[in-house]
Amino acid sequence: MDFSDTIFACSSGFGKAGIAIIRVSGSKSLEVLDIVSGIKNPKARQVRFAEIRHSVSKEVIDKGIVIYFSGPESYTGEDVVEFQVHGGRSVLNEVLESLSLIEGLRVAEAGEFSRRAVLNGKMDLTSAEGVIDLINADTKEQRRQAYRQLSGSLCKLYEDWRSRIVKILAYIEAYIDFPEEDIPASEILRLDNDVKLLIKEQQEHLEDNHRGEVLKNGFKIAIIGVPNAGKSSLLNRLVKRDVAIVSKKAGTTRDVIEAYLDIGGYPVIFSDTAGLRSSEDEIEAEGIKRALLRAQDSDLILGIFDGEEYPFLDSQTLSLLRPGDLSIVNKSDLIRCKIKDDVLAVSALTGFGIDLLLERISLIVSERLSLRDSPALTSLRHREAISKSISYLQRSLDAQQLDLRAEDIRMAARHIGSITGTIGVEEVLDVIFKDFCIGK
Fold first, then answer.
1. Domains in the chain and their CATH numbers?
2. What does each C-alpha distance from 367 to 20, 176, 204, 297 come to in angstroms?
């Protein structure tokens, strides 16, 4: 990947639309603008209406809006030109083909515009990750979290940690460089206390029940129970469409069936699972195995029990429920005795109790995932880097020699810096931008 090239791509996605945006970034942007639209010496950030011509045949392809952004005051930090044309496939394909025929231009690779923005100091790595999260956000709360990260909340936290670590390192290296100076015991104690405070803050940041990652990827709810308890019917009722096959025949569901729902702005993924029982059928047994694994991996379990059998509750289903999971008795019209306070009665057939169930789920999800004062971890990459930082900081406290302590502190700073891209940026760039779309 040559970052001296001038690149182009459609930044608004392909398909029929009223408007399509084609972005060009690099040193040849002004030349491209002249070739395609005949505009010379444009004013930065001034909207111009112009004919868009083919670079070779000079045939008019479309009329559209052209905007020039002068580097470094642009998204990428380079000279950038954007063409806003009609979003039909023919227009878009013709403009892109025209650009591809201009010498020195090439199609941008996935995430290359944002990658150049990082390399040119327009944003840090956490903000770049916020860009892709914002693009992928399906719900209000996902959008809020992504925008918060894009706006630099994580960067400020991590850069604060890094600057404090570097300050500690500077003191230690000063003591190494001037060994003739006696170091007061109180000064060493102060540095140790600073390190311990950093360890405490970073550990608290990690111990968040993965709320940021769960909000980003979806809150997983597993629906489990014996065959014919009404799991599939309940799923269909919750998502208001037929996503699971419903049959009186036991063992109909043999694989995990997923359905997505936006509950109060939070992304929730429901999983209907195979009925829990002993089975010699190889396929059904595999389905039950997957049901157990899905229950273990879920953020919340809905244990479904048959109202016709109540107050009997299946022991295997009960054994899988954890503190905070919900016990639900379906077929409420068939219940013959009073329901306990810790059990919800619903009817997947009539809809009785469904609104109350959704309210309970909404409360649980919002309590678990709601945004707080401190920004949430949203990436395994961040989590691993912070864990390594903690490990090196802890090791530094046990180091008997100052040079060994300095090296441990230096490694802690390196791992925190790798999150934002302050240091070691090249080694993590490929991991970050491989998930980007073309044109961002």
1. 6-108 (3.30.1360.120), 127-208+377-433 (1.20.120.430), 217-369 (3.40.50.300)
2. 40, 49, 18, 19
